[in-house]
Amino acid sequence: MNTARRFDIDDSKANHEIMTALEDVKLFRNLAYINGKWVSGNRFKPVFNPANDEIIGYFTQLSSQQINHAVDSAQQAFTTWRQLQADQRAEYLLSWYQHILDAKQDLARLMVIEQGKTMAEALGEIEYGASFIRWFAEEARRSYGETIPSHIPNAQLSTLREPIGVAGLITPWNFPNAMITRKAAAAMAIGCSVVVKPASETPFSALALAELAERAGIPAGVFNIVTGNANTISHVFCQSDNVKALSFTGSTPVGKLLLSDAANTVKKCSMELGGNAPFIVLADMDIEQAAIAAADAKFQTSGQDCLAANRIFVPEKLYEPFIHHFKALVEAQVVGNGNHPSTTIGPLINQSAVEKAQQLLNDALIKGATIIAQSNATIATQTGGSFFPATLLTNVTTEMAVYREENFCPIAVVMPYSNLEQVIEMSNDTEYGLAAYVYGHDIHQIWQCLRGLEFGMVSVNSVKMTGHPIPFGGMKQSGLGREGSKHGFDEFSEIKYCCLGALPTASGS
Ligand code: NAP
């Protein structure tokens, strides 16, 4: 790699698409952001546009010394940031929030080029991501402790909620903005400083957030972004005594590695991991409406969503009509560059993701599954790109990888079921427990699902379930802890119990 390549902002050839797409080209940063400075490593790595395989820029690879320096700077910044009044921290965060909203068109354009999602999805993510900053800025003012009725004579008992310290945040590529803000806003609002490691496929969306944090005047060292080798960075986070909280969003296998590495320093770990969401259609549901909702829950972000409806369950007697409606919806999907207004399914993140999708499909077909429909239209404006068609599979069995694994691609699996007990059991038959959907009217059946499903989030008659006020998180191997809502503070704070006794007075009272 060309070690002299430092500011791709000057390299109009490599970044022509970005430079022409952005109104504010200074949002495109490629160096790491540490202690309020833009820092270069010795090596650089390319980032590709998944819609055409072209290099859109190079981001810097830091050494472990530089990452340690980022942690030390964050520790230094923590000592003053935590002392600010909640109102003062809130003002900084609200300024950051406003800068992000003002730049949302550019941030979305950058995300489309870097991540591949459609413009509508990207804009939605920027607003969703920003909403956490506003929420936690406001919530910081209400991070109350409590008073406890005393069991000790002449003592007053209470708790304080204190910021835990430096938080190391590791995030994925499928939501390159919101997975950062959902963690960072909670941590920073309560008084922590953060060091963020974004995914290597999508560093530029993260670095644009740092540029805006700088413009918002967030003090140096409070919000840092480090880029480079995942193992090197995560190992520094896990082994550092200064990093008091590790918050990870990504796959379950990597989450397990991090938990094991972090055990040595016994730090607070929160894990937002993979999902394998069931979508249960109840017998009294309008089948066309159910098909529309299921397609929506399956194909967002090209199926690369931890909340994607991975397994769609339909009562046996409604199976054929459901397939009829769902087939039409699959065929109507338009696969293409996220920049094109007609596109509904952007590219997968890279060629490996396409190969994985193809393997899942081959495995299912060999074992007897049938392709009932695929999307007809592909908008191929250029050659290349990691596209995969929306695909509907039937005759799927529970042994197939496409059913058992988080398939993370636009392959939809629809299965018949005979009764509610059976479908709840099938839904729970997975190591994952992130989200589940239920569509129908019968309140008794809905209640049975709400009680019986082993998932951290169950959404009835609504595809949209996430947002700043709700506790987002999973059960079982989908994770530990919750993000968003008032519970989001728990991952970045400690409860300190204070027992305030009274010394006896001279009179002995
Ligand atoms: P991933 O491969 O686990 O990567 C996530 C992050 O971990 C990236 O920053 C990655 O860095 C880093 N990483 C990868 N291997 C590592 C290792 N051996 N040691 C330390 N760090 C490592 O996941 P992904 O493919 O980016 O994201 C998809 C997964 O995230 C899916 O399973 C999805 O369900 C999950 N997800 C969960 C939620 C939720 O809220 N529960 C939300 C979104 C996504 P590099 O990019 O540099 O390799």
Question: Can you describe this structure?
Answer:
The protein is α/β, with parallel strands linked by helices and 509 residues long. The chain folds into 2 domains: 12-48 and 55-144 and 169-273 and 474-492, Aldehyde Dehydrogenase, Chain A, domain 1, CATH 3.40.605.10; 277-460, Aldehyde Dehydrogenase, Chain A, domain 2. It contains 15 helices and 24 strands. Strands 15-17-18-13-12-20-21 form a 7-stranded mixed β-sheet, with helices on both faces. Helix 3 crosses helix 7 and helix 5 runs parallel beside helix 6 (178-190). The protein is globular. The N and C termini lie far apart (77 Å).
Gist of the model:
The chain is α/β, with parallel strands linked by helices and 509 residues long. Helices cover 37% and strands 22% of the residues. It has helices spanning 16-21, 64-81, 86-102, 104-115, 119-140, 178-190, 203-215, 230-239, 252-262, 287-299, 319-331, 351-366, 401-404, 420-428, 443-452, and strands at 32-34, 37-39, 43-48, 55-61, 146-148, 155-163, 166-170, 194-197, 223-225, 243-249, 268-272, 277-281, 309-315, 334-336, 370-374, 377-379, 391-394, 411-417, 432-433, 435-439, 457-460, 475-476, 479-480, 493-501.
